[in-house]
């Protein structure tokens, strides 16, 4: 639980009605619904946003919770996704599920340029994971330049003599 985080407070406030909750995740209704149905699936653990998720298991878990505990999830006409910074309204990872009629203004609020649908979210996590793995070992295994057998750069006078 992070001090000052609205979602951490909501998650840990027993008086606030939840759609579903277990030891890992919580489903709540968005207080400013953008459509007939607008839910948020949050991990209990404070994770800042989609760019700080460690691996795809967190996404799997949020998605499985939604599938298991929301009737008709598979059949729903829906948008499922996340907001990427700086388009987050709350810095506690939350997966939006938006279904049904949306008005233009709310559509703009939800499907703004930071919107990352679930497929893109998995790609993003793969990409961030790969780039962090690529960075760490590469910097540790860089060979000492003096051990490399690199020929010296050609000097200016060594151009081949004219052929005739
Ligand atoms: Zn939080
Ligand atoms: Zn959001």
Automatic annotation (TrEMBL):
Chain positions of motif Histidine triad motif: 92-96
Pro residues: bias regions: 150-164
Keyword entries, A-Z: Hydrolase, Nucleotide-binding
The keyword Cell division belongs to this UniProt entry's keyword annotation: no
Region (Disordered): 138-164
Stored PROSITE patterns: HIT_2 (PS51084)
Any Pfam family the entry gives: DcpS_C
Native organism taxonomy: Eukaryota, Metazoa, Chordata, Tunicata, Appendicularia
Top-level taxonomic group: Eukaryota
Family, per entry: Belongs to the HINT family.
Domain HIT: 6-107
Protein source organism: Oikopleura dioica
Protein name according to UniProt: Adenosine 5'-monophosphoramidase HINT3
InterPro entries: Histidine_triad_HIT, HIT-like, HIT-like_sf
